[in-house]
Structures are given as structure tokens and as C-alpha cells.
Amino acid sequence: MCTSFLMDECLKKIYYINFPPGGRTNIYGLAVFETPIPGELLNSSSNLIASIEPIHENKVEESKTYHHMMVSTFYGITCFLSTASSWNIIELSLEKDIGQGEIISIDSFYTDKTGLVLAFTTVHPTKSKSSADEDGYQYFFRIYWMKDLCKAKCVKEFLPKLTERSQIIELPFTPTQITHTIILKNEISETSLILCGTDDGIHLYTQNSTTTLWGEEAVYPHFPLLSELARLESNILSLEIREFGEKKIIAAGCQNGILHLAIMQKDSTTGNFVQIENPTFAALFSPITSISMFSSRSDGESHDINMIVTCAIEQGIIYRSLDKKNFQSSFQLKECTLHDSVLCSHVMDVDLDGCNEILVGTYGGELMIFKLETPVEGEIKYKLVWQRSFAHPIYRITGLDLNQDGYKELIIVTQYGVHIFVPNLEKAKDQSNKPLNDSEQKDLESVATLEELQTDLKLGDEMVSDTQQSGITETT
User: Fold this and answer.
1) E strands within 285-416?
2) Are 353 and 436 in contact (CB under 8 A)?
3) DSSP 147
């Protein structure tokens, strides 16, 4: 089992970038995307931000997939472009496009079919026609796309041209999170955009293959749970949709503190994901700010499905074995109650031992990292192993291999800038060459065995209320 460690030995902070003057971000301001070409050519004269030397003895081979990210800064977007052994930062100005507006949320993805897609929502102040009326706001959903990515040698070549082709959709509600997911339409897989908002609904957008324009279509055929939430008048603040093998898990966190969960199973005949049982929900009594699903191990050797959920009022809760127990197995991160609003969460293998750690960030600027401990007397615990304070609220956390050395950098997005930590490569070398010892292997097996035993013991207990509301079951 993974043991406690000195995180300072595993991470080195090597870079910090301030957003442009007047720029700041929010909890919906980060987008991660992949491309088959690098962000910048190595022989370019532009200023590449170099990381530390890779640990590989031979020269780093350029990957076929490059991981980039964008951070919205209200009036523009700061782009971090991945390149072998380095990364490049460029500013994508949107002042001509959005004028006096401000960016609320952002998402981006790349597929061979759609090319690179950038989607974001904006708010614009409006002047009332009468002095007796209050000024109002207009909201827009903006989608940019470019299909000729394969003709470029690097992302930097075409990124400034991305705004040349766009579509603007006026919204009658305040938008929140944007995300994307794969759906099956006419027996063809395609990537769709999902927009949450304060109209109690979920909006699904797909691209017309003929006109290339984006249009809204019904949510129910693809996600029955999300369609039902519109009827229940639930404003979704945080949405996570993940596939684990033949299962698709949908978790939706609402402004009223209700956490909804649905499990879908892939139909081997049609390829569609079908909801296999009634969705369940749990009341957390505080607006839900983030949801992150994960497996215990980062190397793909574990098949458990877990979830970390954070709330606006001092809560961080881990749910284990979602596909078997729904909300029955949970663990409170007590240290979160010592701080103010918990805004974000992320899961990654920080110390490179093959086990995923839990990371949470707060409005007060506290970053906390938790690690799964060996079960003691039948109880599974996560221990706080590292904590660091930042000057501004932490809005997003992610892990990306920006410098293409095979190891993810830890990226902390605060209100006014981005902090990047790289792994200690000597520590990485030691961990990558160190197999699990017998004790660690037994500890990992004991966690799985313990959870299976707990499930068996609770088969006769009524852990879930029989009360159902419109096919949604509450966990008590």
C-alpha cells in the first residue's frame, strides 16, 4: 500500500504566469484538449518555456498526442501549448469578438471529424431603455472551430485563425459549466457539447455534418437522468460524465446541494449506453462545486470506480465503488471542514507510486493532497499528506504532461494566474523502477476485499430508501 510521503521531495515549482492586466478566471475557466501535432516547432525562434531535462537516457521522442490547455481570463484566453521537452504560452485575444463582455465558462476538444473546437459562454451588460428600469445582461454561447488542423505543422500556426469561423447562440438563461462527451447518433459516434445553466435544464449541441453548424437536440435519448433533472427544476453547477469500460457514469451536482447519479451499461448489440437502473441521489445541503471520478490506481490495474465531490460550504466527500454501492460507501475529508468554500478537486498520481491521490482547492487558497491509507480495523481512510497556501482562490486543478517527458505536471489555476509544478525526476526514476512489494500488494488487495465484504454484509440491510421520486431514488 502507498504510504505517507514528503510531497516536497516529489514536486518542484518551476513556473508561474500572471494573467494579462485586468484578467482573472473562475471555476469554469479551464479547458484541456489533445492534438496530433505539437504546440510549437522545436526550431522556432519563439520563447519556449523549457522544463527540466527528461530522465530518459535517449532523446525524447515526440508523442503522437499532445496535451494542451486553455485558461479563460474574462477578456481573452491564455493557451499553454505542449511541445517535446517544453511548452509555449500564447494569448488569444477576444476583445474584437466579445467587446465589453466577459467569459463565464470554456471548453475545447479535437477530433478528426470536427477539427479543433473552442466553446465558451459570455455575459454582456445591457442598458435599459427606461431610466426607471434596471440595467440587465445578455448571455451568449460562442462556438469556434477549424477543421484544417492536419495541414498545419503546429498548433500555434492556426490558433490565431480559430476565431475566423464561429457561431453565436443567444441564451435566455445564465450559463454555467460547458463539457463535451461522445454520443451515438445514427449509429455513428460523435462528440457533442453539453451546456448547463440556471434554467433547470441541460442543453445538448451537435454539429450538422452538411452545414457544419451546431444545433440543439433532445437530451433524453442519450442521457435520461439529465432530461429528468430539467423537470425537477435542478440547476446543475457541476457535471461529470465518464466511461469505465462498458459502463458510463453520470454524476450531476446541483445548486440546491443534491447529488444525482446514474449508471449506464453498453448494449453489445447496438453500441448504445442504456440506463440499467433507477438513478439515485444524495442530499449534501450545500451547492456542489466539483465532481471528479477515478480509479484507485493510475496504471490501469484497478477497476474500481470512485468519486470525489466538493461543496461550497466546507465539504469534501469520497464515494467508493459507485457501480456497486452507489452512495453507500463514503468518506468525509475532515480537513476540508477547517477551511472555507471548497471550489475544486482533481485526481492524479502525484508521487508516482501507481496510486492516485486526491487534490482539493479552496477559496482561501489552500491546496490539500490526500492519500488512501491501509485499512485499519475494517475502516478505509484518506490521510492529508501535504498542504500548501496560495495568495489567491484556487479555482481549478489538473495534471498534464506539457513537456512530453512522460510525467504529468501538477497545474494549479488561481484567480489571477497559473502555477506549474513538475515531478522530481530522480524520485520518478526511483518509483518507475520499483515494483510493488509484497506488503503493498497485499494492502491493495485488502482494500478491494474489504469493500466486497462490506457489500456482502449490507445486502440484507436497507441502505437505500424505498421512497422514489419520478424514478430517482434517494440515498439516506
Assistant:
1) 288-294, 306-311, 315-319, 330-332, 342-348, 357-362, 366-372, 382-389, 394-400, 409-414
2) no
3) S
Q: Taking residues 409-437, report their average pLDDT.
A: 79
Single-letter residue type at 119? A
Strand partners, 227: none
User: DSSP 3-state assignment of 26?
Assistant: coil
Residues with Cβ within 8 Å of 159's Cβ and at least 6 positions away in sequence, in order, are 79, 81, 90, 92
Q: Which residue has the cell 456482502?
A: 456
3-state SS class at 74: coil
* Cα–Cα distance for residue pair 127/129, rounded to 1 Å: 6
Closest-CA residue to 75 (of 140, 138, 20, 135): 20
More confident residue, 410 or 1: 410
E strands in 173-246: 175-185, 188-197, 202-207, 214-217, 236-244
CB neighbour burial string for 423-454, b if at least 16 within 10 angstroms, e if fewer: bbbebbeebeeeebeeebeebbeebeeebeeb
428 vs 379, more confident: 379
- In sequence order, what E strands does 314-392 have? 315-319, 330-332, 342-348, 357-362, 366-372, 382-389
Instruction: Average the pLDDT over each of 12-16, 195-199, 355-359 and give the range with the smallest value.
Output: 12-16
| Residues forming beta bridges with residue 410, ordered by sequence position | 399, 421
- Indicate the pLDDT class of residue 460, thresholds 50, 70 and 90: very low
Question: How far apart (Å, rounded) are the C-alpha atoms in residues 419 and 468?
Answer: 45
Of the candidate ranges 181-195, 267-281, 388-402, 430-444, the one whose mean pLDDT is the lowest:
430-444
* CA–CA separation, 95 and 226 (whole Å): 34
| Rounded Cα gap, residues 70 and 34, in angstroms | 11
Q: Flag the least confident range among 149-163, 259-273, 458-472.
A: 458-472
* Burial degree of 18 (CB within 10 A; 0-12, 13-18, 19+): exposed
Residue 363 pLDDT more than 90?
Answer: yes
pTM: 0.85
CA distance 75 to 68: 20
